[in-house]
Amino acid sequence: MVKYMDNSNSGFRQWNAARDANAKKSRLGGILWWFILFLASWWLISWWMSPTKPQTQNDTTPAIEAVDLSAVPVERISSDNLTADVQGLRISNIELLKYASDAANDESAPVKLLGTDGAFAEVGVLSTGTTAPTATTVWTQNGDTYNWRNSDGVEFSRTIKIDGYVISVADTIKNAGKDEISVAPYARIVRPNDAKSSAGVYTGSVAFVNSDLEREDWSRIADKSFAYSTTNGFIGFVDQYWETVLSVASPDQTMRVRPLGDMFQADAAAAAVSIAPGATQTITTNLYMGPRDHRILQTADAMIAGIDQTVDYGWFWFFVRPILWLLYVLNSFVMNYGVAIILMTLLLRLAMWPLTRKSYVSMMAMQKMQPEMARIQKLYANDKARMQMEIMRLYQTHKTSPMSGCLPMLIQIPIFFALYKALLISVQMRSAHFLWISDLASMDPYFILPILMGLTMWLQQHLQTASNGAQTNDAVAQTQKMMKWMPLLFTVMFAWMPAGLVLYWTVSNIFGIGQMYYIKKLNK
Question: If DSSP codes are grouped into helix, strand and coil, which group holds residue 180?
Fold first, then answer.
């Protein structure tokens, strides 16, 4: 008589539980495979995008107009943060005094924005009923004020001030003539079309339109123009670490970003303002020329609303921001970002200690199960279903799982991506030194850290395998076989990743090995 198993039959429930457990193990192994494939793809994309990419141009795109400025004097303005050349309506050659152009050499020249190949920012007005200053107009300077009077008796007075990394241009127009005039303020930033793509960090144009940030990458700007209508917005360009942005104080304005020959232009034009005879009108335009640093941009937000949103935190922003905050706090005590990364790694490891301890204890329990495991495997060698059911019952009895060793690594995956993003966007990491490494945001030039990381990863894996013992379960065996190659694969991929990220992973491995030895000692 055949006895059918239904849902109330204990043997069926155990068999079904074993099947579900195997499916869960396969899923965990699949997650690890996807993680490895994602890292490999990320590495390939980073390598492919690292050189400067030539931009394709529309053949009908007009070139930037040629202007002879030889008769216009150049005045140098400066502050503790930056210096810049003022030549008529134009501002260029902005040097950021606190940032070296060579991240590996603190003594190199300062970073320069809008300093090559005809790049500049221009602030002016277009007029109706009178003549406004042009790029070739020669102003009379009196301290930090520039003056010019046209033939109609209209007086233009310009004051330029620097507040942090914001260059503020205030144009005061006094209509001393007999007729009403109108002026429409405008500003533009022109830069060469030599942009370098950066894998993992958005670079291109940014436009703050009605409280939303619009972005177009370099390849899209090269193909066509983009126009926006907004109130009190801003527009400009962002690179990995720097940005150049303009904002015209006006209730209504039109902004554009477009290609001009071998240049890119971001501009804003505000609605015209009427000035009656004897009246005066002041128009203010703010230019941000500085680092893409959230803390600095938050300060600049008081003058250019929304500019702090230009920082690209990515999908894991809820991890990236706390990690950056923690790194800044730790660095304020130890004064070295490499040491700060080590301390942060130890703090994260300590925070995960309960989970890590539970995982390691579970693995040691599995080691003690091996004699019974071997007996079951031998006894039911010809009955795979019964073998799986008995093995699952053994796991349940000892309250353990063969995949428990993967849990600490899975927990670290979002932290890994968040730290990678933090290293890419943090201008402080760009020139952060640690031992032989001169730039924690770049790869280790001698590959010492990746090799150390691979060795510590192999040792940690070896200790975990020893704790797990030999497994003949197909899903577990397949996962363990895959894991054997992970130290070598990670060493190759991490060789070109930021040194700060490799430092984090290496220290995490070393601390994990120490935790494993400690738990083994406690459970002897």
Answer: coil
Nearest partner of 286 among 159, 123, 167, 453, judged by Cα: 167
* Burial grade of 59 (CB within 10 A; 0-12, 13-18, 19 or more): exposed
Note whether 450 and 501 are within 8 A (CB): no
At 182, phi and psi to the nearest 5? -135, 145
Distance CA 212, CA 424 (A): 24
Residue 118: CA count within 13 A, CB half-sphere: 17
Kindly write down the DSSP assignment for every residue of 400-415, as one continuous string. --TTGGGHHHHHHHHH
Query: Which pTM was predicted?
Result: 0.78
Report the distance separating Cα 331 and Cα 11, nearest Å: 59
Q: Which amino acid is at 510?
A: I
What is the CA angle 239-169-271, rounded to 5? Answer: 90
CA distances from 112 to 96, 159, 231 (A): 6, 23, 31
Taking alpha carbons only, the member of 496, 432, 429, 431 closest to residue 102 is 431
**What pLDDT tens digit does each residue of the chain (524 aa) get?**
444 444 445 554 454 544 454 544 444 455 555 555 555 555 554 444 443 333 333 333 455 677 888 899 999 999 999 999 999 999 999 999 999 988 878 888 999 999 877 899 999 999 999 999 999 999 998 888 999 999 998 999 999 999 999 999 999 999 998 899 999 999 999 999 876 666 678 899 999 999 899 999 898 998 889 999 988 899 999 999 999 999 998 878 899 999 988 899 999 999 999 999 999 999 999 999 999 999 999 999 999 999 999 998 877 788 888 999 999 999 999 999 999 999 999 998 888 877 777 777 766 666 677 777 778 777 877 877 888 887 787 777 766 666 665 666 677 778 878 888 888 888 888 888 899 998 888 888 999 999 999 999 888 877 766 555 544 455 555 666 666 778 888 888 888 888 999 999 999 899 888 887 887 777 66
3-state helix, strand, coil in the chain (%, to 5): 45, 25, 30
Place of tokens 């199960």: 369
Question: In sequence order, what DSSP letters do the residues of 452-511 get, joined into one string?
Answer: HHHHHHHHHHHHHHHHH-----HHHHHHHHHHHTHHHHHHHHHTTS-HHHHHHHHHHHHH
DSSP code of 68? -
Domains and CATH numbers, the chain: 75-312 (2.70.98.90), 318-522 (no CATH)
Q: Return the structure tokens found at 518.
A: 């400690």
- Run of H or E residues at 328: helix 317-334
* Region of residue 117 (phi > 0: left; psi between -120 and 50: alpha; otherwise: beta): left
Burial 184-219 (b: 16+ CB within 10 A, else e): bbbbbbbbebbbebbebbbbbbbbbbeeeebebebe
Cα gap 23→19, rounded to integer Å: 6
3-class DSSP assignment, residue 338: helix
